[in-house]
Write a structure and sequence with these properties.
Elements (H helix, E strand, L loop, with lengths): L7 H45 E2 L8 E2 L1 H19 L7 H15 L15
Antiparallel strand pairs: 1-2
Length: about 120
């Protein structure tokens, strides 16, 4: 199929214009793919830096990774559990219970029975 305008210069311009348009389209698509991949790799790098942590450097303190932070939280949680549970006198809960017993002895509520049985001398 021979399609031409009959003007060789115009035919050449149309062929070159079509070729340039196709190449520009491929270039735009390639640019979008490369830009998206670069953005994704940058975000992945940030995630991995947060996950594994970063060493300290001049002017920037060290940032621990996720696993170290979770370990620190577990240690803190064990300490809190120790303080809110009864363990024979060494926790905050035991101290509060002791204060409540002393207060109940000093200011008894007439409607409630005594928390401790009376002691005989």
């Amino acid at each position: 199929m021979d399609v031409s305008t009959g003007i060789p210069a115009l035919d050449a311009a149309l062929v070159w214009g079509g070729a340039i348009s196709v190449l520009a389209g491929f270039g735009a698509v390639l640019w979008r793919v490369v830009r998206g991949a670069t953005h994704l790799l940058g975000r992945t790098g940030q995630f991995l830096d947060d996950w594994y942590g970063e060493e300290g450097r001049a002017g920037v303190p060290e940032r621990p990774g996720v696993m170290q932070r979770l370990g620190d939280l577990e240690t803190g949680l064990r300490h809190v559990q120790h303080e809110v549970g009864q363990n024979g006198g060494g926790s905050l809960r035991d101290a509060v219970d002791e204060v409540n017993r002393r207060l109940a002895r000093m200011c008894p509520d007439p409607d409630e029975p005594s928390p401790d049985p009376p002691t005989t001398p």
